[in-house]
Specification:
The complex is a heterodimer of chains A (414) and B (230). Chain A is built from 13 helices and twelve strands. Chain A has 414 residues and is α+β, with helices and mostly antiparallel strands. Chain A starts with a helix and ends with a helix. Chain B starts with a strand and ends in an 8-residue tail after the last strand. Chain B has 230 residues and is of the alpha/beta class. Classes of the chains: A alpha+beta (414), B alpha/beta (230).
Amino acid sequence: MIRVLRLSARNLVRYWRRSLLTSGLIVLGMVAVLLFVAVSASFKQIMIGQITDSMLGHLQVHQRGYVASIENLPLNLNMKPELVARVEALLREMPEVEAITARLKFGAMLSDFDETTNIRLNGVEPEREAAAMPLLAGRLLDGEIRNGLLEPGALLLPELLARGMGVQVGDTVVLVATNVDGSVNGRTFLVQGVLDAVTGPGGRDGYLHIDDARALLRMDAPEVNQIAIRLQDPGQTERVARRLEQRLGDIVNPRGQPLLTVHTWDQLTPFANIARMIDLLDLFIRIMLVGIVLIAVMNVMIMSVYERVREIGTIAAIGTPPGRILLLFVGEGVLLGVVGTLVGMLISLGVVQLLNVWPLEFAFGRQEIVLAPALALGDILWVAAIVVAVAAAASLQPAWKAARMDPNTALRHV
Amino acid sequence: MALVQATGLHKTYRTGDVSVHAVRGVDFSIESGGFVAFVGPSGSGKSTVLNMIGCLDRPTDGTLRVLDTDVASLGRREAADFRGANLGFVFQDFNLIPVLSAAENIEYPLLMVQNWPVAQRRARVAELLEAVGIADRADKRPDQLSGGQKQRVAVARALASKPKLVLADEPTANLDHVTALRIIDLMKAMRDEFGTTFVFSTHDPRIVDAAEEVFHLEDGRIVNGAGGTA
C-alpha cells in the first residue's frame, strides 16, 4: 500500500499546479467549516451559558400548567411549602444536582414617584439564587452585591427600565402588586443595583428578596412558583430531566395526574430555536464541503485518467493487477484529501488561536458578545474523516475506469 | 514443446456493420530462446499477432498456446497475472513511467506486479542497469534520457522479472540508425545472457536481418509458409 501511495504522491507532484489548486479548494472548504463550527459553537456556548447560568438554570420544576400561562405570571399555580420541601428533599438526593433555588415570580407596578411602569420580578433567596445562577452577579452594571446577592428591602432593576425611568442606585422606589385574591399592596424599596439585560425570557426581570415578595403579595405561607436547578454536568440535562420527571410522577393531584412538570432550559427559551438553526447551518456548510471536495477531486481525477490513458495501458500491459491500478488512482484522491485536510486543520487551528488573541466582539440584541472559539478534537476528526472519505469516493469512479481499461486500446490511445 | 503455438489463428474487428479481418488463419510456432520477427507492411496484422501472443487481445478463432497456456481462455485478471509472470514488453514509444527514474522504471514490475523482496529487487535492478549499459543514468527521469537510453531502460524493464518471452512492437521505429543497431545488439545480447525469447513486430530491415526466424505477413496471412529462416 505504501508503495502505491508513494507512486500516487509522485503523480500528484507531477501535475503540481492542478494538485495545488484542488488541495487549495479542499483547504478553503475545511477552514470555512472548522471556523464556522468553532465560532458558532462558541456563540452557542456563551449564549446558552448566560441563559442557564444567570436566569433559567438547566432545569425548572413548576406546577402543571404554569409554563403554559407564564406570560400572565399566575399566582394561583404556586407550589405550597410542603410540596416545595418534598421536591427539594428529592433533589438533594440526586448527585447530579449542584444547586437549587426556589423563586416567586410575579408582576408589579414600579413607581419612582414621578412615573410608573410594569415590571416582572423574581423573589429569591439571595444566597441560593447566587449559588444556582453563578453569572447573575456578573450582570451587575451599577451598585454592589450584598448578602450574597441582595439585602431585604432592596431591589435589583433591569438596566433598560432603570435608564428609562432615570432611576439610580440608592433611589427609593415603590412596588405595587396585586395578590392572588385581587387585593393591591404597595411597599417602598431601595435600588441596590442595576442589572445588564440578557437574551430570553427573564433577561429583563428585576430581583428582590423572597420574603419581601411574600410580604408584598400578602402571602400567608412561603409559596414559590418555580424551582430552578443547576446541574454538575449540563450535558446530562435531558437524562436528569427524564429521571426527575419519573421521580416526581409520584406526586399527583386529586384526579391522580402528576402535579408537577420538569422543563429543560431549551423548552423555556426561544434561543433554543436559534441554537437549532445554528446546528442546521452547521449541517448545510458540511454538505457544501462534501460538494466542494467531491467536485474538485472528481474533476482532477477524471482529468488525470484522461491524460494518462497510454500510461495506464503500459502498466496494465506489463501485468499490474486491475485492483492495484484502482488503488493507485484512489490513492491520489485520498492524498489530495489528506493534504487538504492537514493544511486546512493547521490553518483553522492557527486562525482560532488568533481569534482568541484578538477576540471577535459583536452585539447580539442588547448584549455585547466576546467570542472565544475553540475546536473540539471530535469536530476536527469528524470533518477530516468526511473530507478524506469523500475524496476517496470521488476518485473511485475515475479509478474504476482506469482499472477496467483495456490495455490494448489504451496503448493505441493518441 | 514450442514456447508459442498458433493454429488457424483469426482476428476480426467489427465496427458497426463493417468487419476487418486483421489476421486470417495463421499457423506458427516459436521455440524457446528464439529471436523472431513478424514483418510486413502497415495493416498486415503483425502487431495484432503480437498483441494476441501478449494476451492484450483475444483471437476470434483458432488456438493460441503460450507457455502451454491457452491464452484465449484467460479472463481479464488471469491475463494480467499471466503477463506479469511470463511476459515482457518493449514499445515503440518506450512507454516509461515519467515520474519514475530509470532504476525505478526497471524496478516497477518487481515492485508493483511481482512483490519481490527489497534486497533481491535492488540486486536485479543493478544487474540490469549494468547489462544494458546505463548504470550511470540510473537516477535520471525519462525526460532526462536520450531515445536510445530510454529504449535500453525499456528493455531492462521488460527483462526485470525474468520473463520467458519478450514482445517488442516496433522497438527501433523511433530511433536513429546507429542507436537502433545498438538496441538490436543489446536485445540479442540479453537473449544470449538470459536465454529469453524475443519476438518482434517490425518493418525495420535491420531487425529482419538480425532475426533468426522471420514470419512475413500480408493481409493477415503468413506468406512465407510455416515461417522462414533469415
